[in-house]
Amino acid sequence: MLISVCMCTYKRAHLEKTLSSIYNLKLGSDLELEVIVVDNDAALSGKPFCQPYLDKFPGRFKYISETRKNISAARNAGLNEAKGDWVAFIDDDEVADEDWLVELLKCASTYQAHAVFGQVITIYPSSTPHWIIKGKLFDEIQKNTGTKVSSGASNCTLLNRNFIEKHQIRFNLDYGTTGGEDAEFFNRVHSKGGILVTCKEAIVREEVEENRLNGTYLKKKATRIGQCFSKYRMQNASFLQKLSLILRSSLKLILSSMLILLNLPRGKSKYYPHILNYCDAYGKIHYFFSSSQIELYK
């Protein structure tokens, strides 16, 4: 069985470590890999890191340039080249455990899933402020293996290619500079009857970039997540459904404000999670009253 491993890259030297981890994956005798790297940098900065792997994956390594600065376009370029029965997604700032792919496939088989989301373990640089580590502000909440979900991210994921080809699903270019394109994509997979589950045994490790280790980035990201949630979840919603989300988010604003004040004496690691909840709720409401959205991929 052929598996397509797809990753997008943009000016990241860490790409070499990601590719090395893919090369060192443990695979069964019935599995074969093709690796697809889509470089979203017009200067082709990722090419030198890919060159050594042309021989390591003979005939099964593809380096593609997508010059449009649009993460959705880059993801689609990878999907369009994929020939595998399954597509595995990983980011260029991650390292996969050697059993990563085997665990994703095992979970897909066990739960008859069309998409499986693995576990991303955050690695904090030594320069990370203590309050960020203590507050676990970059850590993802991991659900038990087999938990059904209605959406997810594409940074540690296995996807049934036949399912998306049957339903002609691709990443939406409208999310190409804001992010959130993966959440919207997988929500459409779910809406077409796809089964989406989590798998905590399939692990990648991601080191946080130093320029993200600050409150400004965290608040910006949380607000953007809220905006994108409203955008893709409410695009076909009724007026009452939209009003309900606005009211619930307004209540969350009030509650988060109270919890921020109550936790101020306990330190930044305790009150900052509530600031991020506030930003998320604000983003959900902001979407309905403004045409501007935060762009993470300018």
Plain-language structure description:
The protein is globular. The chain is built from eleven helices and nine strands. With 298 residues, it is of the alpha/beta class. Strands 1, 2, 3, 4, 5, 6, 7, 8 and 9 form a nine-stranded mixed β-sheet that branches. 43% of the residues lie in helices and 19% in strands. It has helices at 15-23, 47-50, 53-56, 71-81, 100-111, 130-135, 161-166, 181-191, 215-233, 239-263, 268-289, and strands at residues 2-9, 32-39, 61-65, 86-90, 94-96, 115-123, 148-149, 156-160, 196-207. Helix 8 runs parallel beside helix 9 (215-233) and helix 9 packs parallel to helix 11 (268-289). It starts with a strand and ends in a 9-residue tail after the last helix.
